[in-house]
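Annex B. Sample input.
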Amino acid sequence: MRVLSTTVSHAMVRLAFVFLVSVLSCATVFPQGSTAQMSGTVKDQSGAVLPGVEITVTQTATGLVRSTLTNETGSYTLPNLPVGPYRLEAALSGFRTYVRSGVVLEVSSNPVIHILLDVGQVAETVEVQANAALVETRTVGVGQIMENERILELPLNGRNVTELITLQGGAVQTGVSSPRSMPGQQEISVAGGLSSGVAYSLDGAIHNNPYDNLSLPLPFPDALQEFKVETSALSASQGQHSGAQVNAVTRSGTNDFHGSLFEFLRNDLFNATTYKARVDSSTGKKVHSTLKRNQFGGTIGGPIIQNRVFFFGGYQGSIFRQDPADRQSWVPTEAMLRGDFRTAASAACGRAYTLRAPFVNNQVNPALFSPAALNLSKRLPAPQDECGFITWGVLNRDSDRQIIGKTDWQINPSHSFIGRVLFTGNNRDVPHKLNPENLLTVCCLGWDNLAQSYTVGDTWLASPSSVVSGRLAVNYTDVHRLGAQFFNASELGVKNYFSHAPKYSQINVSAPGFGLGGGTQSDSTFRTFSSGLNVDASLLRGTHQWAVGGALSWIDSNSNAHVNSPGTFSFTGKHTTFPMADFLLGRTATLNESGPNTDYMRKWYMAVYLADTWKLNPNWTLNYGVRWEPDTAETLTLARVQTYSEDRRVARIRSTQFINAPLGFSYPGDPGFKARRGRDQHWSIFAPRFGFAWDVNGDGRTSIRASAGIAYDYPNAQFHLWTSIAPPWGLNVTVLDPIFDDPWVQTATYPGGNPFPASLSKDTPYVAFGGFTTMGDIEATQVQNWNLSVQRQFGNDWLVSASYLGSHTIHMLGGEPLNPAIYFPGVADANGNCLAQGYTFRTTPRATCSTTGNTNQRRRLSLIDFQETGRWVGSISEIQSGGNANYNGLLLNVRKRATEGITLSGNYTWSHCIGPFQATQAGGTGPSPTDTNIFPGDRDRGRGNCPGDRRHVTNLTGVFETP
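Annex B, continued. Sample output.
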């Protein structure tokens, strides 16, 4: 059976590749990603349709010419037109030539321009000066445009264009990119979609970073022409992500030379000081943070060969300097070091503490202090008062740069080519290098990041009714997180201690206390390569406009991180009530340590679609299609993935790959394990779409549109970071109540001694109560969308619309705890028995049943199978796909396009999104051992407002140009 399954899987892969290659050999494009379309019907004065009319459009900025003929129904369609200003001409023998100028095509727009010809000579012309209608009468979905005027002129802190997406209706920011990715990118939920569910395209090529499924850096404002945000049951040509589509276009050169220079200055001297700013003791005044930011650069574009070849280039540099004093910590005072906590633990310092017995009157014999803690205390900065309080800051020295270059080549009237490169670099000096005297600055990281994006494209007019076009993209991100280099715990005198980060420590003393290091602040690298070939062919056949195409992408991501591998000592006040006393006594609450997070992921993405736009009659248009995009699953080249089965545990089945593994766990190479994936590939994934557009009066000024469809989403490349540190590879362990000076001593609560560094072999020993993240047989997240929209144009430039958007999301990813700790209320009986939920836990007679110290002993597997499984297994977080969410929203929009120096856009969204606990996990690192459903076995109990739920959102933007 296993052989048959493998054979079928390989056959499906070969079949899919053969089909994709056959499609790709015909055409290559990202459909409408960076272009627009123009269509309409030509009639005479009597209303009769006119076939054979020659339709010619000319882009006035570059001289690009495109021609076609009306078909037997008098209809014409000109797809894949570059954005920009156009002149439209219609000529037929026996009729006057129709000329219309002032038509401006926007990205992903599809204006319908009907033409009425007068009887006369072809040499006679009828000239019209008017832009295209704003009402959509052919397309489905709900979308809004961000024009060049607003991109350039709206105030934009940091000049990060991605932030402008949230000005579009229904779009809300739910977070920002993590330190593992390019800084400044936004997690955006559109119409209740996943925060990582937005598909980005730039110049028609895919522009997502597959590491976190967010956007790659977009060009700075002066280099970006415009972008459009579309959502809810879009055409079958759109896919790979389920929430929305953002199509952006970089600027291009024209027949005239144009350029710009800019400088933007921000200086903190123009602002008030922050509330927490440090007070200068000599003057009694707050100290400014001395923030200074300079953003400068320029653009230039023009012809290389008139009407044929054009270029555009731009550069932006940013220099950021800041010396704030806005952080607060508490460090040991001289009195504390003498064992006197009477002042520091009093209400005079914010809160009164009473040290537990055997300590009296908040005093401790300093002979009991930890030598390692005292060694560390000598390296800390001096306190500023008797409470140990200190205000300090982190020096910031950032420098960013972005370079863009683009070439457009009109090879001949039926063939054009584009090429574009985009480089984005981010650098930040390590703060501790800038201020080595203050040990607290090791809290924060520097970075040395580079993102590269290359795109080439080709558009070929095969015939007046057939256009094929293509985009090949190669993207690469190299994120190097620079952690401070100072010392590890062994240099403080901690015995028998090994760290995978030889010059790094993570020590947290709860407030009032201090912190050193941080899991995401350590030295790490994250490198992701992706390439994509996207496909589309537009074929006009009678009243049908067929679109056929597909996509093929390869993702190669390598992560090497040290989130827990330096080890994290936490002092919480658990032992004495006062965290600083715990620290000086060396009474640690927990030590959490693991091996490095090493995640080498490979994946293919493929899709094929067929869609049709059918003009039933002058007023009605149907849109329908289907998209096939199988879930090929992620392959982990290091094979660091595992599953857990309760049935295998009950059957007493142990892994053949790791003979010391607890019962029930399986690994790559074990019978029945799914290659190096840990889950099935799903080939029968089809996404149907259907919609209609009704031009109510037939004049293109009022439309009613509706559509419904299914879309899918897939995990990102960082989703397996936690599976890589489970035993036996990472040995992710949590030690309760260890001794700071000797955390692995045999008398501590953790048996077996220090397991680090681990050596991997078939007989690798397992650590006690290890933390596991296991793979369930997840399915691709599915989103069912539907919408109804009404649009009305007033005058030549005003558009108002009202849209209802709804969605139902299933198979949302999240972590389910398979080995939760059972809560036993009260105290044990006279025999030491605690009873709850059908389980029995034995402890000391009359002792409290449930404490943090016996958490692992109260876990389910410890209670039912301690010897073979429970003693080796702490938490188990299984990645599952059982979450679901619902969204309903009303979107009202008004727009005035740029005329007479005025551009206006406003929208109001009234919506509600309800989802499960962990609704944000699809865009993160996946569920960690400590981040799971808080209601085991009852995910719906944690349902509530989605992280992106914003009940009322209003945006109003405008640009007013002065004479």
